[in-house]
Write a structure and sequence with these properties.
Elements: E1 5-6, H1 17-23, H2 25-29, H3 39-59, E2 66-69, H4 72-86, E3 93-97, H5 102-115, E4 118-122, H6 132-138, E5 143-147, H7 161-171, E6 174-178, E7 197-201, E8 212-216, H8 231-234, H9 242-280, E9 284-286, E10 297-302, H10 307-316, E11 319-320, H11 336-340, H12 345-348, E12 351-355, H13 362-382
Parallel strand pairs: 1-11, 3-4, 3-5, 5-6, 6-7
Antiparallel strand pairs: 2-8, 7-8, 9-10, 10-12
Helix pairs in contact: 1-9, 3-9, 4-5, 9-13, 10-13
Amino acid sequence: MTDQIYLDHAATTPIRAEVRAAMEPWLWENYANASSVYRMAQSARSALDRARDSVAACLGATPAEIVFTSGGTESDNAAIKGAAFARRDDGRHLVTTTIEHHAVLHPFEELRERFGFEVTVVPVESNGIVNVDTLTASLRPDSTLVSVMWANNEIGTIQPIEQIAALTRERGITLHVDAVQAAGAVSIDLQNVPVDLLSISAHKFYGPKGVGALYVRRGTPWWPLLTGGGQERNRRAGTENVAGIVGLSCAQAIACQERDSGNARLAALRDRLLHAIERGISGVTLNGDRVKRLPNNLNVCFEGVHGESLLVGLDLDGVSSSSGSACTSGSLEPSHVLLAIGVPARLAQSSLRLTLGRDNTERDVDRTVDLLHRLVSRLRAQSPAPKAVR
C-alpha cells in the first residue's frame, strides 16, 4: 500500500512524540485534581504552574494573563462575549471581518440577534488582507470591541495586527485576535503588540485536541464565559485538564524554538508545490496573497473541476487534503472566505487547500503534483464545469 501523504495540517496536526511523553505521567501516574490539597494534587498544581509560565513566555505575556480553555472555539467565544458584555455600558458597537472563522462570526451574530449589539463586518481586499483604512472608517465613538484573526485558516493570509493593535489602543477599543492558525508559525510578542485578548489551540501545533488558552491582558474589562468553581482564578470554571495543558505547553515551547528553521523549510516546500501546480496545470488560481501568508498554506482553485471530486480522488490515491475549514466540511456552500475575497461562487467550489507539516518531504510534494495533474485532466475530460450556486 502506498504511504499516506497528510496535507491537512491547518485542520489538525499529529501529536509529537515529545508531547505525548510529557503528557503520559499526568494520564496514568498522577491523575489527581489540581484543586485538591494533598501532595499528589499539589504536584499536579505545580505542573499547571510550570505550563502556564511556559505558555506565557512564548507569547510575551505574564503567567497571570493566561487562562486555559478547551480549545480555540471556547477561547474565541469567551473573549468576544466576555469583552462585549463587560463593556456594554461603554458602547454596543462591535467590529470584525468577513473572513473570520465561524467560532468568531457566530458569537458576533448571537450578540447582534439575541442581545441587541450592533455589528459591522468589514470587507477585506482581494488578496485576503484587511485594509487598515477600511477598518478605521468602520469605527465609531461607541465601538468597544474589534476582532481580527492573525492568520486565516483557509487561505493563510497574515493580517497587519501590529497596525490594528496600535489603532485600537489609541481609541480605547478592546482588541481580540484569533491566533489559532498563527501560533507556532508567527512570532507573537504581546509585550510589544498591544493585543488585549488572544486565542490559541494546542492541536494546531502538534499538541493534543481539546485544550487551548486565552490571553487576557491585565486590566482588560472581561467577564468569564464559564462560572462555577474558582479554577483559573475564577476566570474559567471546571477541573483543569492537567495532561492536556502540559501537552499544550510542551508543543508550544518546541514550536517557538523551531519556528524559524521550520518556517523556512515549509515555505520552500509550499513554493515548490505551487510552482509545479502552476507550471503543469492550466486554469489555476492562487487564493490569498502570494507573499503575506503562512509558510505551509496553499489554497488554489482549478477551473472546471469540483473540489469535492478532487478531495475524493486524492484520498483514493493516499493524499489527505481539504477544501477549506474542517469545521464546515461536508457543506455544499462555497467557502465564505473565498466569496469574501471576490472569488466567483462557481470557481470557489473548485478550491483545494493543501497545508504542509513537519513530516512532509519533497517526494510528497512531487507525488501530489503528479496525482493532481492526472486527476484534474481526467475530471475535466469527464465532466462539464460545475454549475454556479444559486
